[in-house]
Write a structure and sequence with these properties.
It is built from 4 helices and no strands. It is mainly alpha-helical. The protein has one domain. Helix 2 packs antiparallel against helix 3, helix 2 packs parallel to helix 4 and helix 3 runs antiparallel to helix 4. The longest helix is centred in the C-terminal third of the chain and has 31 residues. The radius of gyration is 19 Å and the shape is elongated. This is Lipoprotein.
């Protein structure tokens, strides 16, 4: 086992190094984030349909949709434009995930 630990550490470092060298283009990252947005939005729509979202949560989801739908439905192709909107899309996904957590906490309390 003692000989195995240094080997595992070396393998871990090698994997971390390779992962660090692998970069995703901003456009790919945007497309992946938009995909995450679509999945999260679908889950929020189901929660809304079942009456599990409060009025403020519905309003928050609608606000996120107003900002992100145009971006994710017609994403920019120029990396500079992508870089400009990517933080907004990530923040929108973060907000939807927070709402998801709130819904789960409320469900657990019932």
């Amino acid at each position: 086992m003692a000989k195995l630990v240094p080997s595992l550490v070396a393998i871990g470092l090698a994997v971390a190094t390779v992962a660090a060298c692998t970069t995703v283009s901003p456009r790919i990252e945007l497309l992946q984030t938009c995909d995450r947005y679509a999945s999260t939005l679908t889950a929020r729509a189901a929660a809304k349909a079942h009456g599990r979202l409060s009025v403020p949560q519905v309003d928050a989801v609608d606000t996120v949709r107003l900002g992100l739908n145009p971006i994710c439905e017609s994403p920019p192709v120029v990396d500079e434009s992508v870089a400009a909107v990517l933080p907004q899309v990530k923040e929108g996904v973060r907000q939807l995930l927070l709402i998801e957590a709130q819904v789960e906490i409320a469900d657990d309390a019932r």
